[in-house]
Amino acid sequence: MTPRTKIEIVTLFPGWFDSVLKESIIGRGRAKRLFEIDIIDLREFTTDKHRTADDKPFGGGGGMVLKVQPLFNCLTSLGYEKMRKPGERLVLTSAAGKLFTQEKAVEYSLLKRVTIICGHYLGVDERILELFDIEEISIGDYVMTGGEAAAAVLLDSITRLIPGVLGNFESALEDSHSEGYLGTPVYTRPEEFKDLRVPEELLTGNHKGIKAFRRLEALRKTFENRPELLSGAELDKKEKIFLDKLKKAKKENNKE
User: Fold this and answer.
1) Dist. CA 104–CA 90, nearest whole Å
2) What is the pLDDT, as a whole number, of residue 176?
3) DSSP-derived secondary structure letter, 84
4) What is the pLDDT along the chain (256 residues), one digit of tens a residue?
5) Terminal Cα-to-Cα distance of the chain (whole angstroms)
6) By three-state DSSP, how is residue 220 classified?
7) Which class in CATH covers the domain with range 192-255?
8) 5-159 in CATH: which number?
9) How far apart are CA 245 and CA 36, in angstroms?
C-alpha cells in the first residue's frame, strides 16, 4: 500500500527521533504504511569538512543561527521551489511562528506532503524565509533549545488524524479542541474509588443523554481552564443557560 501522506523532518539531531518513530500510534501507523516519515540530517547538506550547519549571528549576541546555505541545499534537493506546490507544505518550528492548533493539524493531515524544519537556538537565517514559502509554527509561548520536540508534537497530532491510524477514528473526532472546546472529563472502571463515583449520567446507557451530558461537561471544563475559547462560540439555548449559571457561580465565589 502506498502511504497517502509523507512527512519529512529536517534536523541537526536525527537520532532524537529514534524512539518517537517506534512507539505507540506513530510506530504502528508507520509499520502499516499508513504514512511515510523521513528524518533528514541537515549536516548532510553542508559544504565544509566540519559539517557546519550553524554559526554566530551578525551583530553579536549569544546563541547560534542555522545557516542559509545548508537549508537551501536541503530544500532544493527535496524538490522545493519558491512557490508552494498544491498538496505540499514547508513548516518551520519557531517561537516567532503562528500558534499550532487542532484546525492546523487537520489541514496538514489532508496534505500529500509536509516537511518540518526543526528550528534551532536563536532561529534560522531569515533569508531562507524569502527564498521559500515557509510557514512558521509555534506550539506555545515559550522557548526551547531546539525544534525537535515541537516537530514531534506536530508529527503526533498530524498522523493520528490520518484514516486508519487510530483504532476508533471517532475518538479523534471527540478530541479536545476538535469543536473549539476542551475535551469532556472521562472515566473508566472501577465505578467507585475512594468514595468518588463516576457520574450517574454516564452509566444510564442512554446515548443521547450521555452525549448531552458530555457536551455540558466539556463546556464546564473549557470555561474553567480556557474561557477565551468560548468567545464567539455557537451555543444552543440549554448550553447558554448552563454557561450563565457557571458565570454566576464564579462571581458569587469571587465575592466570598
Assistant:
1) 13
2) 46
3) P
4) 678 899 999 999 999 999 999 999 999 999 999 999 999 999 999 999 999 999 999 999 888 999 999 999 999 999 999 999 999 999 999 999 999 999 999 999 999 999 999 998 789 999 999 999 999 999 999 988 899 999 999 999 999 999 889 865 455 545 544 566 888 899 999 999 999 999 999 999 999 999 999 999 999 999 999 999 898 888 999 999 999 999 999 999 888 7
5) 63
6) helix
7) mainly alpha
8) 3.40.1280.10
9) 48
CA quadruple 60, 65, 69, 72: dihedral, nearest 10: -140
Q: Is 92 helix (H, G, I), strand (E, B) or coil?
A: strand
Residues linked to residue 92 through DSSP beta bridges, in sequence order: 117, 136
SS3 163: coil
- Is residue 47 classed as helix, strand or coil in its secondary structure? coil
Quick one: cell of 44? 548532510
Q: Which of 6, 66, 68 is nearest to 33 (CA)?
A: 6
Beta strands in the chain (DSSP E): 5-11, 35-41, 54-55, 65-66, 88-99, 113-117, 123-124, 134-138, 192-193, 196-197
Q: Where are the domains of the chain?
A: 5-159, 192-255
DSSP letter at 135 equals: E
List of residues 6+ apart from 104 with CB closer than 8 A = 98, 137
Q: Which residues of 62-99 are buried (b: 16+ CB within 10 A; e: fewer)?
A: eeebbbbbbbbbbbeebebeeeeeeebbbbbbbbebee
